[in-house]
Each structure stands twice: as structure tokens, then as C-alpha cells.
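Give me the 3D structure for D-inositol 3-phosphate glycosyltransferase.
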Amino acid sequence: MPVRHGARRPGATRVTLLTEGTYPHSHGGVSVWCDQLVQGMTDLDFDIIAVTGTGREPVVWDLPGHVSRVLSVPMWGAPPEGRPPRGRARVQLAAAYERFLTALLDPGAEDAFAPALYTMARAAADGTLSPFLRADRAIALLTAVWNRPGLAVREAGPTLHDAITATALLEHALRPLAAPPPENGVAHAVSGGVAVLPGLAALERHGVPLLLTEHGVYLRERYLGYRTASYRWPVKAVVLGFFRLLAEESYRRAALITPGNRYNRLWEEQGGAAPESIRTVYNGVDPAAFPPAGPEPDALTLSWAGRVDPIKDLETLIRAFALVRERIPDVRLRMFGGTPRGGEAYRERCEALAAELGHADAVTFEGRVDDIKDAYAAGNVVMLSSISEGFPFTLIEAMSCGRATVSTDVGGVREAVGDTGLVVPPRDPAAMAAAALELLGDAGRRRAMGEAARLRVIEQFTLRQTIDTFRSIYRELPLLDRRSRALRARARTLAPLGTGTGSLAG
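Predicted structure for D-inositol 3-phosphate glycosyltransferase (506 residues):
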């Protein structure tokens, strides 16, 4: 259900932010980034289409008046309203869905993905897609497709239970197609994956240019997540096939892609993005808002800040801390950050690991802190143990506060740190412990690294640079896109007789 905020202003550039599990319904690095853009551009108007869990999540950010509307699109609440298709519409949707499934499972049929997806998008807009996917016909189609001779998934012996599970996962993943897409301005997806679906629909239906920013690599994170998921391989093949082809379509159709680091750019080029459509834009912070943290704590302390989530790999951090404590018995580990709904079991697992290793007395989970600067000031060294990151705010904020850091070599971490901190391989407690011991044992080196880190932020990663860059993109993208479409239309008009032009929608 949409929530109205400020009034729309005639003539103001309009940006629709497309989010998933972040702004404005939760905290975290991507949400901070979104809020920075919105708060920093009072001359633009914003709408938000937010993919959420149940749709009951409250708005937790104070939204300014130039945010006109927030539309929550629940993936796991009540299904979208509508009724099953009938007659010819049912036949057409079934045929499109069969082509869609075939594209997910047959490498030779992947070209059918996009036309089928846009046919399904029109059905979602009519209210017929979700009811169709919740009916027996959709399950029967998947059963028939993945049992075709020659498909690799057939060798895994897919079952009826697999088909029911995979169909339900697809139905939920495709729900954002039912959201009314933006009709003008710029659609800005702040992650890949399902958040992009309303943007692709807006581009196909209304010609609204799509801007895509990936902080982490969405597809890589899905691969990591499904690697340990309990689903059988036939289910994973369907769902991961969907995310892979959706990523490729998003990269192809985006007018501009603005990764937060060069690492993401490599994934995007590998996924089919044209190099000329990619422009790296680093995250930024306001150095005045993150001044030097001041004196270090008296007791040697490692601090960590972020959301308690498996992708942050706190288990490796706790295991590394146990190794550090063998050498420095009085050291402490303080962890700051909230636990997202559904993440309670992971936090309990981490607490149990600390107790199992005999360090429950020295490891504290302190929850969200009113001022994140206090989390950085709490440590002699700030740690980051993630297995996936984009260009992490916690890292550049800690650097701005003048703290030495130990971080895992993922995403844009090495680009952010340069030589002002220590970078270690992910999932390697011994390497992380060795780096932490190296810095804990040398106060002079910590001080020099912290000073260099703050200078690096001031020179390269300021919030003003980020906001000015995106303001220019928002204003220029509709003009560039209209010019590009006019040139394409002129080329079609001047094409020699007999030259055909294809349609993505099929």
C-alpha cells in the first residue's frame, strides 16, 4: 500500500528509488547511502518502491518533504490481488511461462528469457500472474520442462515436491512485477535482483531510463546464499537460473550502471554489461560528521559495526579473536549493530560459538548504538570480516574517524583502504588474527595508519562528491536516453528495405 508524503513539484526532476530489504524500512549501509542521496538533493523529487518482507515493516527513516510516495511491495505477505487468467490469456501466459522456464534450464534457450519476462510483467500488471503461478498448471509446466531429455537438471531426479517449492519461490520473486512502475523521470535500482523488476517494467512500458547501482554483487550473494541452502539441486537450478538471467537482462537494459567499486564492474562486464555503460561512483562520507575518534580505549579492544548477518561472517571474527586472546588474554571484542528480523538464530549461533571457545566473557553483542562513531571509538582496531561487500560505509567511516582497520579482501575493500589498513583473505581466522595482533602490538603504527586513512577519505571519498555525481546523472539521463531513442528510431527509418528490427517484448 502506498504511503503519501510530500506534494509533487511541477518541473522537478523525479527519481524513483527501487530498493529491496533496505531503505526506508531498515537500517544498514545501503539505507544510509539512500538517505544521503535523498537528504542531499532537496531540489529533486523522490518516490520509493521498496520490496519488503511482509509489508508490515514500519518506515524507520525520517523522510523529507520531497519524498512524495513510498510503496511497499511485500514478497512474503499476502499475494497480490487478482484472478487467474482465462481463455486465450491463459494460453498465452502458459506459453510464455513455459518459455521462461526453458530459458532458466536450457543454455540454448536463454534468448527467450526477456520476451517471456515482459509478457509475464503485463500479466502481473493485469493481476493474473500471481494467481496463475499459485495454480496447478504452473507446477505441471515446470515438471514437464525439467524432465525433457538432454537437460542436465533431469539427471538430479526432480520430484513433485521440488516443483512445488521452485514454483512458490518464483512466484514470490516475481511479485514486484505487480507494482505500478514509474511512468517518468529515472528509475534507480539500488541493488540488482528483484528490486530491478519494476524498473525493467517501466523501461519496457513507458521508456523510463533505468539506472542500476550495485553495492554488493547481488548474483554472487545469491550463489553464496544458495550454496548452503537446504533446497535440492533442481530447485537451486531454477532459482539461480532466474537470478543469473535477470542480472544479465538488467545489465543489458540499464541506461547506466554505477557500481560502487571496480570489483563489481568486473562482475557486471562478465554478466553482459557494455563497458561504456558503466561508471564507478564510490560511496562517500562527510568527514566533518566523522571526525577523529580521539584517544584509544585503555583496555586493548577490537570493535566491529554492522548488521548481524551471515554475510558479515562473524564466526570467522570470533574464531580470529580466540586466537588473538591466546596471545593477549585481556583483549576484548565489542560488536555493535542490530539483528534483522529472522537473523536471531545466527546471532545465537555466534554467541554459542564464543561460549564454546571459552570467550563469552570477552565478546559482547551491544546492539544498535545511538551514535555509530562510538562504535569506532570503542576499538583500538576496527574489524571487518565480511564474505561479500560493495564499498562498505563502516570501513570508510572508521577510516574518517582515524582508526586503523583489519578487513577482508572482498568487493571494494582494497580500493577503499589502500595502504592505510591491513587486508586479509575472507574466511581465514588465522590471517585475521595475525593482522590484528600486528596492529595491537604497535601503537605508533596504528596512529600513523589512522591519520593516513582519514586523509584518504578527505581526498577521495567525500559525500559531496557522491551527491554531485548522482545529481548530474539524474538530470542528464532522461535527456541522453531520449536522444538515444531518437537516434535508434531514425536509424530504423533510414534502414534499407528488407532490414528487420526485432522486439524485446516478442
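Confidence is low (pLDDT under 50) at residues 497-506. Let me know if you want a second pass.
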